[in-house]
Amino acid sequence: MRKIIHIDMDCFYAAVETKYNPQLKGKALGIGGPADSRSVLCTANYEARRYGVRAAMPSSKAVRLCPHLILLPPQFDLYKKESQRVFEILKRFSDKVEPLSLDEAYIDVTDSKHFKGSATLIAQEIRRLIFLEVGLTASAGVAPNKFLAKVASDWNKPNGLFVIKPDEVESFLLDLPIEKIFGVGKVTAEKFHQLGIKTCGELRNKDLFFLKRHFGSRAFELYELSLGIDKREVISHWEPKSLTVEETFDKDVGGLDELLPHLPRLYEEWQSRFSKKPHLQNRVAGVVVKIKTTDFQQSTKEVAFAGVPTLQDFVKLLTSKLLQVEKKIRLVGIGVRLHGSEKDQQLALIS
Ligand code: DCP
Ligand code: MG
After folding, report:
1. Ligand 1 center to residue 42 CA distance, Å?
2. I need a labelling partner for 1 at 20 to 30 A (CA). Which of 156, 288, 290, 298 fits?
3. Does residue 8's CB lie within 6 angstroms of at least one atom of ligand 1?
4. Nearest CA to 57 among 68, 35, 41?
5. The pLDDT of residue 26 is above 70
6. In 3D, which of 51, 15, 19, 45 has the Cα closest to residue 30?
7. Separation of CA 119 and ligand 1 centre (Å)
C-alpha cells in the first residue's frame, strides 16, 4: 500500500503578493489584468471568494461582484522563486516528488524513514516548514493513492490537513460526488447525472457492462477509481544529486573507536536504499562522508569514485576526515554524489 501526500498551496499567487505586501492582509485581492481589459483572474484570495470571485473569471465580472476588490497584475518570476523554495522543502522528505504546477505536488513517502514512516506526521511537518521557512500556508492530503490524496488536500482547505486511511477509503467514497473523480469533467459528470449516478457509491454499484455501454473504454478506469483504486505512480521529473544516509547519536561520540562500530549498520541502510535504485549505479561520481560536531558545525569530505562503494571505502574516507577533527561527533552521514542523468551525460559528451 502506498503513502501519498498531495500538497496544494493556498490561493498561491495572492498569498505570495500578500507576503511581500502585508498591507493586503484581510483585504479582498484578485490577481489578473485590469477590470476594463478583457483579462481573466489567475486567482483570488479567500476574502474575495466570499463574494463569489473565482479563478478564470473575467476581471470585469470580479469587480462587479466585489467592488472593493484590489486587482494586481501577476508577477510570475516571483511566484516561481517562492515555488522553488517550497519544492526544496518537499524534496527533503522523498526523491519521488511530482510537480503538477507551481503550487501543487504529489510526494510518495512510502519508503520514507522520517517520523517512523508516518505520512500524516510528514505532511504536518511539511506544512509547518513551508510556513516557517517560506511564510506561506499549504493544505495537504494524505491517502493511499494520488486520486484520493488530491481530493483530501482540498477537504480542509485553506491551511488544513485531511487524512484518508486505507480502511477509511470505502466509506469515504460512498458519498463522494463523481465530479471529484480524477478526469471527470463537466461533460462526463452531466452524463453520470442523467444516468442517475451522483456519487462514487452509486457508480460502483453499477455493473461493468452498463458502464461500458455508456463510457466505452474509460468505463473500467472510472469504475476502479470509484472503488478507490488508482495505480498511477508518482513520477519525479528531477534526478537526485546524491544519495546519503545519516545518523544522529543519542549521545555525542568521541573519536574513531567510538564512531566506527556504528558504520556497518549505517552502510547497510545506505546499501539497501541504493540497491532499490539500480539506475543510479552508473551515475556515482564521488563518495561522501559528513559529520556534525558537538557545536553543530557541519563538514563533508569527498573523493571521486565510480561504481558501488564498499563499507571499507567509507571507513577509509571517514578515518582520513576524522584525523582533522578533535571535537566530539553528533552526527555522521555517508553516501554518494551522483552525476546528472544518462541523458545529461550524453549531452555533456557531445557539447
Ligand atoms: N492559476 C491560474 N489560472 C487558473 C487557475 C490557477 O493562473 N485558472 C494559478 C493561480 C493560482 C495557482 O495557479 O494561485 C494555483 O492554482 P490553484 O488552483 O491551486 O489555486 P490557488 O492556489 O490560487 O487557490 P487554492 O487555495 O484553492 O489552492
Ligand atoms: Mg493552490
Report:
1. 6
2. 156
3. yes
4. 41
5. yes
6. 45
7. 25
